TrEMBL record:
Record-linked InterPro entries: SAM-dependent_MTases_sf, UbiG_MeTrfase
Protein role: O-methyltransferase that catalyzes the 2 O-methylation steps in the ubiquinone biosynthetic pathway.
Species of origin: Parazoarcus communis
Binding site for S-adenosyl-L-methionine: R38, G57, D78, M122
UniProt name for this protein: Ubiquinone biosynthesis O-methyltransferase
This enzyme's EC code(s): 2.1.1.222, 2.1.1.64
Matches recorded under Gene3D superfamilies: Vaccinia Virus protein VP39
Protein backbone atom coordinates (compact mmCIF):
# COMPACT_ATOMS: atom_id res chain seq x y z
CA UNK A 1 0.00 0.00 0.00
CA UNK A 2 1.61 3.26 -1.11
CA UNK A 3 1.52 6.50 0.86
CA UNK A 4 -0.22 9.40 -0.83
CA UNK A 5 2.32 12.10 -1.77
CA UNK A 6 0.29 14.94 -0.29
CA UNK A 7 0.28 17.07 2.85
CA UNK A 8 -3.25 17.24 4.34
CA UNK A 9 -2.50 20.67 5.80
CA UNK A 10 -1.47 22.00 2.37
CA UNK A 11 -4.59 20.55 0.75
CA UNK A 12 -6.78 22.11 3.43
CA UNK A 13 -5.04 25.46 3.00
CA UNK A 14 -6.01 25.69 -0.67
CA UNK A 15 -9.41 24.05 -0.19
CA UNK A 16 -10.35 26.77 2.30
CA UNK A 17 -9.61 29.43 -0.34
CA UNK A 18 -11.03 27.53 -3.33
CA UNK A 19 -14.16 29.69 -3.67
CA UNK A 20 -11.90 32.71 -4.35
CA UNK A 21 -9.76 31.04 -7.03
CA UNK A 22 -11.21 32.97 -9.97
CA UNK A 23 -11.42 36.33 -8.20
CA UNK A 24 -8.53 38.35 -9.72
CA UNK A 25 -8.47 40.61 -6.65
CA UNK A 26 -8.27 37.72 -4.16
CA UNK A 27 -5.38 35.80 -2.65
CA UNK A 28 -4.94 34.24 -6.10
CA UNK A 29 -4.23 37.58 -7.76
CA UNK A 30 -0.56 36.64 -8.36
CA UNK A 31 -1.63 33.51 -10.25
CA UNK A 32 -3.90 35.57 -12.50
CA UNK A 33 -1.10 38.05 -13.16
CA UNK A 34 1.61 35.50 -13.96
CA UNK A 35 -0.64 33.22 -16.02
CA UNK A 36 -0.24 35.11 -19.34
CA UNK A 37 3.54 35.05 -18.89
CA UNK A 38 3.86 31.36 -18.16
CA UNK A 39 1.23 30.39 -20.74
CA UNK A 40 3.01 32.32 -23.48
CA UNK A 41 6.38 30.85 -22.48
CA UNK A 42 5.04 27.29 -22.53
CA UNK A 43 3.25 27.83 -25.84
CA UNK A 44 6.32 29.37 -27.50
CA UNK A 45 8.29 26.22 -26.68
CA UNK A 46 5.71 23.45 -27.06
CA UNK A 47 3.13 24.89 -29.53
CA UNK A 48 0.12 23.81 -27.49
CA UNK A 49 -2.58 23.92 -30.17
CA UNK A 50 -3.67 20.38 -30.99
CA UNK A 51 -1.53 18.86 -28.24
CA UNK A 52 -2.71 16.48 -25.51
CA UNK A 53 -1.75 18.30 -22.30
CA UNK A 54 -1.83 17.42 -18.60
CA UNK A 55 -1.82 20.06 -15.84
CA UNK A 56 -0.61 18.45 -12.59
CA UNK A 57 -1.83 20.25 -9.48
CA UNK A 58 -4.27 22.28 -11.55
CA UNK A 59 -6.13 23.79 -8.59
CA UNK A 60 -8.98 25.98 -9.78
CA UNK A 61 -7.90 25.69 -13.40
CA UNK A 62 -6.34 29.04 -14.28
CA UNK A 63 -3.51 27.56 -16.36
CA UNK A 64 -5.63 24.63 -17.55
CA UNK A 65 -8.23 26.94 -19.06
CA UNK A 66 -5.54 29.13 -20.55
CA UNK A 67 -4.02 26.18 -22.39
CA UNK A 68 -7.45 25.00 -23.54
CA UNK A 69 -8.21 28.48 -24.87
CA UNK A 70 -5.35 28.24 -27.36
CA UNK A 71 -6.35 24.86 -28.71
CA UNK A 72 -4.88 22.23 -26.41
CA UNK A 73 -6.82 19.18 -25.25
CA UNK A 74 -6.35 19.57 -21.50
CA UNK A 75 -6.68 17.24 -18.54
CA UNK A 76 -6.24 18.73 -15.07
CA UNK A 77 -5.56 16.67 -11.94
CA UNK A 78 -5.54 17.71 -8.29
CA UNK A 79 -6.24 16.29 -4.83
CA UNK A 80 -8.44 19.15 -3.63
CA UNK A 81 -12.10 18.34 -4.24
CA UNK A 82 -13.12 21.92 -3.54
CA UNK A 83 -10.62 23.39 -5.99
CA UNK A 84 -11.72 20.95 -8.69
CA UNK A 85 -15.36 21.81 -7.97
CA UNK A 86 -14.59 25.48 -8.56
CA UNK A 87 -12.64 24.59 -11.72
CA UNK A 88 -15.56 22.60 -13.13
CA UNK A 89 -18.07 25.34 -12.32
CA UNK A 90 -15.93 27.96 -14.03
CA UNK A 91 -16.11 26.01 -17.29
CA UNK A 92 -19.79 26.97 -17.51
CA UNK A 93 -18.76 30.63 -17.43
CA UNK A 94 -15.75 30.42 -19.74
CA UNK A 95 -17.07 27.86 -22.23
CA UNK A 96 -13.71 26.05 -22.24
CA UNK A 97 -13.32 22.28 -22.16
CA UNK A 98 -11.06 20.69 -19.55
CA UNK A 99 -11.25 17.16 -18.16
CA UNK A 100 -10.71 17.51 -14.41
CA UNK A 101 -9.81 14.46 -12.29
CA UNK A 102 -9.43 13.94 -8.53
CA UNK A 103 -6.28 11.81 -8.53
CA UNK A 104 -2.60 11.99 -7.56
CA UNK A 105 0.10 12.34 -10.19
CA UNK A 106 1.58 9.00 -9.18
CA UNK A 107 -1.70 7.08 -9.49
CA UNK A 108 -2.57 8.80 -12.76
CA UNK A 109 0.86 7.95 -14.15
CA UNK A 110 0.31 4.27 -13.42
CA UNK A 111 -2.93 4.42 -15.43
CA UNK A 112 -1.69 6.65 -18.27
CA UNK A 113 1.99 6.08 -19.05
CA UNK A 114 3.41 8.04 -21.99
CA UNK A 115 0.00 9.50 -22.84
CA UNK A 116 0.62 13.26 -23.02
CA UNK A 117 2.54 15.51 -25.40
CA UNK A 118 3.01 18.15 -22.69
CA UNK A 119 2.87 18.02 -18.89
CA UNK A 120 2.85 21.11 -16.68
CA UNK A 121 3.41 21.18 -12.91
CA UNK A 122 3.37 24.77 -11.74
CA UNK A 123 3.59 26.15 -8.19
CA UNK A 124 3.06 22.67 -6.76
CA UNK A 125 6.42 21.04 -5.99
CA UNK A 126 7.00 23.24 -2.94
CA UNK A 127 3.74 21.97 -1.44
CA UNK A 128 4.25 18.18 -1.58
CA UNK A 129 6.24 15.96 0.83
CA UNK A 130 8.24 14.26 -1.95
CA UNK A 131 8.78 16.48 -5.00
CA UNK A 132 11.02 13.88 -6.65
CA UNK A 133 8.07 11.47 -6.70
CA UNK A 134 5.87 14.04 -8.45
CA UNK A 135 8.62 14.75 -10.98
CA UNK A 136 9.03 11.03 -11.68
CA UNK A 137 5.28 10.75 -12.24
CA UNK A 138 5.36 13.66 -14.69
CA UNK A 139 8.18 11.94 -16.56
CA UNK A 140 6.16 8.74 -16.76
CA UNK A 141 3.07 10.57 -18.03
CA UNK A 142 4.73 12.38 -20.93
CA UNK A 143 5.46 10.75 -24.27
CA UNK A 144 9.09 10.09 -25.26
CA UNK A 145 10.41 13.37 -26.65
CA UNK A 146 7.58 15.29 -24.99
CA UNK A 147 7.79 18.44 -22.88
CA UNK A 148 7.50 18.78 -19.10
CA UNK A 149 7.37 22.22 -17.45
CA UNK A 150 7.91 22.96 -13.77
CA UNK A 151 7.82 26.13 -11.71
CA UNK A 152 8.75 26.56 -8.07
CA UNK A 153 10.72 28.72 -5.62
CA UNK A 154 14.46 28.84 -5.09
CA UNK A 155 15.87 28.27 -1.60
CA UNK A 156 18.13 31.10 -0.45
CA UNK A 157 18.02 34.23 1.69
CA UNK A 158 16.66 36.38 -1.14
CA UNK A 159 13.81 33.94 -1.82
CA UNK A 160 12.92 33.88 1.89
CA UNK A 161 12.98 37.68 2.04
CA UNK A 162 10.95 38.24 -1.13
CA UNK A 163 8.57 35.26 -1.21
CA UNK A 164 7.73 35.03 2.48
CA UNK A 165 8.60 38.26 4.31
CA UNK A 166 7.83 40.48 1.32
CA UNK A 167 4.94 38.72 -0.45
CA UNK A 168 3.14 37.32 2.60
CA UNK A 169 3.82 39.84 5.38
CA UNK A 170 4.70 43.22 3.85
CA UNK A 171 2.99 43.42 0.44
CA UNK A 172 0.32 40.86 1.41
CA UNK A 173 0.26 39.43 -2.10
CA UNK A 174 -0.31 35.98 -0.56
CA UNK A 175 -1.90 34.76 2.68
CA UNK A 176 0.51 34.24 5.56
CA UNK A 177 1.64 30.63 5.72
CA UNK A 178 1.26 30.01 1.97
CA UNK A 179 4.87 28.85 1.73
CA UNK A 180 7.33 27.01 3.95
CA UNK A 181 10.94 27.99 3.31
CA UNK A 182 12.28 24.49 4.01
CA UNK A 183 10.23 23.17 1.07
CA UNK A 184 11.74 25.56 -1.47
CA UNK A 185 13.82 23.83 -4.17
CA UNK A 186 17.09 24.99 -5.70
CA UNK A 187 17.37 24.84 -9.51
CA UNK A 188 20.26 22.39 -9.15
CA UNK A 189 18.03 20.08 -7.09
CA UNK A 190 15.14 20.32 -9.54
CA UNK A 191 17.50 19.60 -12.43
CA UNK A 192 18.90 16.58 -10.58
CA UNK A 193 15.44 15.21 -9.78
CA UNK A 194 14.50 15.69 -13.43
CA UNK A 195 17.56 13.88 -14.79
CA UNK A 196 17.02 11.03 -12.35
CA UNK A 197 13.50 10.66 -13.75
CA UNK A 198 14.69 10.59 -17.37
CA UNK A 199 13.95 14.24 -18.16
CA UNK A 200 16.60 16.41 -19.79
CA UNK A 201 16.62 20.04 -18.53
CA UNK A 202 16.46 22.45 -21.47
CA UNK A 203 15.73 26.00 -20.36
CA UNK A 204 15.81 27.68 -16.94
CA UNK A 205 13.81 30.91 -16.73
CA UNK A 206 13.41 33.33 -13.84
CA UNK A 207 10.21 35.17 -12.95
CA UNK A 208 10.43 38.45 -11.05
CA UNK A 209 8.00 40.90 -9.45
CA UNK A 210 8.64 44.65 -9.37
CA UNK A 211 6.87 46.05 -6.28
CA UNK A 212 7.03 49.59 -7.65
CA UNK A 213 5.42 48.92 -11.03
CA UNK A 214 3.52 45.88 -9.70
CA UNK A 215 4.46 43.98 -12.84
CA UNK A 216 5.77 40.43 -13.25
CA UNK A 217 8.36 39.63 -15.92
CA UNK A 218 10.42 36.70 -17.18
CA UNK A 219 14.20 36.95 -17.32
CA UNK A 220 17.52 35.61 -16.11
CA UNK A 221 16.97 36.22 -12.40
CA UNK A 222 16.16 32.80 -10.92
CA UNK A 223 16.88 33.82 -7.31
CA UNK A 224 13.23 33.66 -6.22
CA UNK A 225 10.65 32.24 -8.67
CA UNK A 226 11.78 30.18 -11.62
CA UNK A 227 10.53 27.85 -14.35
CA UNK A 228 12.27 24.82 -15.86
CA UNK A 229 11.55 23.27 -19.26
CA UNK A 230 12.55 19.63 -19.65
CA UNK A 231 12.09 16.95 -22.29
CA UNK A 232 11.71 13.21 -21.82
CA UNK A 233 14.40 11.13 -23.39
CA UNK A 234 13.26 9.57 -26.67
Amino acid sequence: MTTLNADPAELQKFSDLAHRWWDPASEFKPLHEINPLRLSWIDDIASLSGKDVLDVGCGGGILSEGMASIGATVTGIDLSEKALGVARLHLFESGQKVDYRLVSAEAFADENPARFDVVTCMEMLEHVPDPASTIAACAKLVKPGGHVFFSTLNRNLKAYTFAIIGAEYLLKLLPRGTHEYAKFIKPSELSRYSRNAGLNPQTLMGMSYNPLTKVYSLGRDTDVNYLLHTRRES
